[in-house]
Amino acid sequence: MKCAIAMIPLVSASSDMAKLTGPNSGETFINDPDRIDALNSVMGAKWVAGHNPNFEGMKVKHVRPILGAILAPQRNNSLPQSVYDGLKDAPAEFDARTKWKGLVHEIRDQAQCGSCWAFSASEVLSDRFAIATNTPSPVLSPEDMVSCDKSDHGCSGGMLPNAWTYLKDTGIVTDACFPYGAGGGKAPACVDKCANGADFQKYKASSVYSISGNDNLQKDLSTKGPIQVAFMVYSSFMSYKSGVYTKHIWEVIPEGGHAVKLMGWGNEDGTDYWLVANSWTTSWGMDGFFKIKRGVNECKIETDGPPYAGLPATASQSVVV
Fold first, then answer.
1. What's this model's pTM, rounded to 2 decimal places?
2. Residue 119 belongs to a domain with what CATH number?
3. pLDDT one-digit tens code per residue, 47-62
4. Candidates 31, 54, 278, 299; catalytic one
5. Is 196 a catalytic residue?
6. Residue of 113, 155, 258, 299 with catalytic role
7. For residues 279 and 266, what is the distance between their CA atoms, to the nearest angstrom?
C-alpha cells in the first residue's frame, strides 16, 4: 500500500510566490504589500517582514548596486589572523551598546552608493578608538575610503582586507573633515584639506587582522569592540523588520554581498542570533539593526569577508598631513 504525502505550501498562494521567486522578482517593489504578506506567510519563519521607508518606491533590482562587499574566498585573505583561546564560556547575551554605553556610534546611511565596505570598516575603527580611550571619539570618514582608497572601487564596491590595509597604512580623517558626498552613487574627488578648516589628521589602525571561529568572534567583540563582517544578501532580507533572520529555502541566488558591523549576540525564543548594525538608516529593520541566526553560518556571515577588525593607533601614531 502506498502512503500519501501531504504537501504543505510554503506561502499562501502561487501568485504570491511568483513575486518572490519568479523571473521578474527583481522588478517587484520591496514595499509591495503582497510581497510582504507572502514573506510573512512562510511557515516556521522566525522573523517578520515589513514596510521599510528607506526603500520606498524601490524595486529589488534597485538595491543590488548598494550591496558593495566584494567577497573573496578566505584562502585569499591577505591579512594576519587573530589567535585566541576563544571565549569558551560566553555569556548568554552581549550588546556592545550596553557594555560601552555612549562610546558606540549611531546608525548611518550609505544611501545609493555601494559603500557598505567603507561604512562598516570606518564605523568599527571609530568605535574602537572610543573604546580604547574610554572617551567619545569623532565619527571617522567613510568618504575618505570611498574617494581615496584606490585598491577598492568606491561606489562600485570594495574588499574587506583592502579596506583594513588602507586603514593601517594610510588612515582616514574625520567625517566632519571629509563629509559623505557619495550618497547619489558617485564619489567626489579625493581631498587633502578639511572642509571644516581643521588639521587634516589621519586616524589609523596600528594592526589589522581577520577572525576565524565563533568563539574568537565573541572573544574579540566582547573585549575590543565591534567587528566588520560580511554576508550574502537574498532579496527577502531587504524586507526585514524584526526577529531572527534566515533566508528562505527557495532563495538560492544572492543579490550581492553586504558588509556590516557586528555588535553582539543572544537568543530569542530558542534561536541563537548575532546582533548587527546596518547602514540603511534607522528607518530600516529594528531602528537600523537586525538579528541573524548564529552558529550555522547563515548567509555565510561567520566566514565571508572574512570577519575583520583592527586596533586603533595611539595619538602619537596618527598623521597630520
1. 0.91
2. 3.90.70.10
3. 999 999 999 999 999 9
4. 278
5. no
6. 258
7. 21
Residue whose C-alpha is closest to residue 274's, from 210, 229, 319, 223: 229
% of the chain beyond a pLDDT of 90: 80
Is the per-residue pLDDT at 5 higher than 50? no
In a domain, 8, yes or no: no
Q: Which domain holds residue 147?
A: 25-320
Distance CA(74)–CA(261), nearest Å, equals 19
* 161 in any annotated domain: yes
Digit-coded pLDDT (tens) for 250-306: 999 999 999 999 999 999 999 999 999 999 999 999 999 999 999 999 999 999 989
Q: Among the options 116, 155, 177, 299, which is catalytic?
A: 116
In the DSSP assignment, the letter for residue 238 is G
Number of domains in the chain: 1
C-alpha cell at 35: 510581497
Task: Measure the CA–CA gap between 201 and 54, rounded to whole angstroms.
Answer: 33
Task: Assign residue 213 a region (left: φ > 0; alpha: ψ between -120 and 50; beta: otherwise).
Answer: left
d(CA 210, CA 83): 10
Active-site residue, 116 included: yes
Q: Which amino acid is at 3?
A: C
- Find, among 252, 260, 254, 261, the residue nearest to 233 by Cα: 254
If we measure between CA atoms, which residue out of 188, 227, 232 comes closest to residue 70?
232
Type of residue numbered 179: P
What is the pLDDT confidence band of residue 24, given thresholds at 50, 70 and 90? confident
Residue 97 falls inside a structural domain: yes
Q: How far apart are alpha carbons 158 and 176 in whole angstroms? A: 23
Residue 190 forms part of a structural domain = yes
Q: How far apart are the first and last CA of the chain?
A: 82
